[in-house]
Amino acid sequence: RGGFYTPPLIAKFILKWAVNGNKNYDVLEPSCGDGVFLEQIKENCFEYKSITAIETDEDEFEKARKIHLHKTNVINEDFLTYCNSTRNEFDLVIGNPPYIRYQYFNKKQRAEAEKIFFRAGLKYSKLTNAWVSFIVGSCLLLKDKGKIGFVLPAELLQVSYAKQLRNYLAHFYNKINIVSFKKLVFPLIQQEVVLLLCERGNNGGHLIEHLELKDASELETLDVTKLKSPKKKIDFKSNKWTFYFLSQKEIDFIEKLLNQKEINPLSHYANVEVGITTGTNEFFTISKETAEQFHLQDYTKRMVGRSVQVPSVIFTEQDWKENTKAGVRAYFLKFPQMNELQKNKRAIEYIKSGEEKKINRLYKCRIRNEWQIVPSTWVSEALFIRRNNIYPKLIINEANAYTTDTMHRVTIKKDTKLLSGKKVNMKALVASYYNSLSFAFAEICGRSHGGGALELMPNEVESILLPYREENDGLLDKIDSMMRKGKNIDEILEFTDKKILKEGYGFSEEEIKMANNIWKKLLNRRLGRN
Predict the structure, then answer these.
(1) Are strands 382-385 and 72-75 parallel, antiparallel or unpaired?
(2) Structure pTM?
(3) Between 426-433 and 476-484, two packed helices, what is the crossing angle to 10 degrees?
(4) Residues in contact with 318: Cβ distance below 8 Å, sequence separation at least 6, in sequence order
(5) DSSP for 3-24?
(6) What is the pLDDT of residues 25-59, one digit of tens each?
């Protein structure tokens, strides 16, 4: 069901912020579960005009109904269906909607969700999670001066499938507050959550504010009046709301760079595409020992698959050899057709071992003409590591190694020419990435996970601002040397910021410090969840 029960402390705070002394609110809770919000209304004597609570699960519905709040109607129905059939409107919508992927929706739920999106003038896609449909539906049922208060996954702030929702909310509401937590509210599922608190009004402005607390316990002493006057203007062009973790001065600095367009995004110079999608890396990536055991040497290709296997900004043949000695999966299996494999009995044994484990029935494998032949197997000039800890690496692929979808493949755009008329230099491109500004944009453009990892998809990598200069190719060997000697990234950035940002693009010391502070602020916030 995608249900995670709201801690009473959070439910109480959302109600305290929302009700704020009002006695005549018509309240809706679209997914009441066992009634945590209803219990808090009862225990804390919050006043209201009426309450409508929806719950699709019959057992949970019965628990909520037994709370026996006056002027309350608990309905055993799917909210999506209710949203499309009711004519009621509400002053306040609160709750913690279910987190369910599209593929787990039944046919009727998908149809109802699509109808909600159509009513709101939005496009519905197969990437849309259930909680997005609940938020849009709740907005449709709101009165002109209404409020919503929800517990939502932090994906709201950053994932691509919620971009349309962010834009919708930014235009629909006049005041938006985001409350986040340094410690996980749901640690057992590694799901970072935020509180989304929105108000409609007649002031015509669209303001947003972000407040970060140590943990949910700080809500007990938080003055809700702090959330009444958000200060930051919403940037309708901004793709992600992680932007608003920054100060207004920092936001202005970023917007200035984007508007001046003196520094291009990485997409101006290169294409970024996912690595090889094998279907199951455990089968198609092997160690030297396994290759020898099953006589697979004729079908192996050099590969690199994990960030720990890449010691620096240049992945050399020697680096690859060191990985093979260490016994890691340094080989990718590029099999031919089965009729060619028949001559190699040990290779056939390996294929059969995969079929015994039902690997051939996995989706990516079973849709192939011959399941053991992996498509789109080509080598790129550079690699970008998809999931990262301190900072994402962009790497010259000197070893000509294959990579799986744990890394992205980076290639120079063939039709891009510089003002000088020359083509883009890959060494210069990789060197140009290692600076505080690009690192800050990696944090802004990517998304963080509950455990503290930073992940960037190809389109997000392409959005990183890259202060490219052909002269930067001369910095690559120095960066590589410093990294191999174990120099701290701060020491490396001190060197590169001076060369790339100050000398190359005329940044002042204050601007360089601000770029570095933005990176550190977003980095430390992310690592706080580890």
Answers:
(1) unpaired
(2) 0.80
(3) 50
(4) none
(5) --PPPHHHHHHHHHHHHTT---
(6) 999 999 998 899 999 999 999 999 999 999 999 99
